[in-house]
Amino acid sequence: MVAAYHSLVGLAAAVTSIANIMMFAESGHEMDGVHMVTAFLGDIIGAITLTGSAVAFGKLQGILDSKPLNLPGKNLLNLSMAAAVVTCGGLFLTTPDPSFGIAMLWATAAIGGVLGAHLTASIGGADMPVVITLLNSYSGYALCAEGFMLNNDLITTVGALIGSSGAILSYIMCKAMNRSLLNVIFGGYGTSGAGSSAAVVTGTHQEISLGEAAESLATAGRVLIVPGYGLAVANAQHSIAELTKMLKKKGVEVGSVLVYCSVHYAAWSGFQLQSCRLWGGGV
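Predicted structure:
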């Protein structure tokens, strides 16, 4: 849902930027350099936020495949689209023809939309919570640019707060996962388009039935719950909360249950589980 809201923010930013330039073109008034630059920034950031958030929403909802998209030459494709965006921006800022400038803004929005969708689709579903916080930061920067363009101090201030807080949260999450932000955004960078071979699974696993799992929980002195991406996709946070309450009640009655909730950082950002701790015996 957060990703869906971000996509609407991106849409609003891109449309407002183009509409503002069209308004000035029809009135015959010229815009100064600051307004033109902020209009371009609002357009490109909004377009990337729009499509990127839509793809993130589709992955988290199971509408799209959560596996990262690995097109042949994807890095060259991203660089080419980035170069095209810079070219369109340069033409928009330097052309004396308002109609051509507006066309360059539309072209920027189209290329930026494809770039945002491709960048997000190339990231695995497990990293989507980090991507959402990053897109939240993008939406704040787009809003900040809109504030400069519209001469609205409130929008500028709110956009700066959203952009900076989203960037800080993204950095904290990547730090907690012992990964860099660039590693998340350009995950798989340098790999071939054909894809890499799957990891070899080693070791053994032991399967148990639901009854055996329930018995193990009921008789355990300590239970370790580690919510991850699968739990977030299954929307099972409420079930985990109920299970935790049941074990907590049992711990209070017999005084021998210990429940730890050790939360995967990316999953925590998705549904904001709180870690819980009940003291008791060992497992």
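Summary: DSSP finds eleven helices and three strands in the chain.
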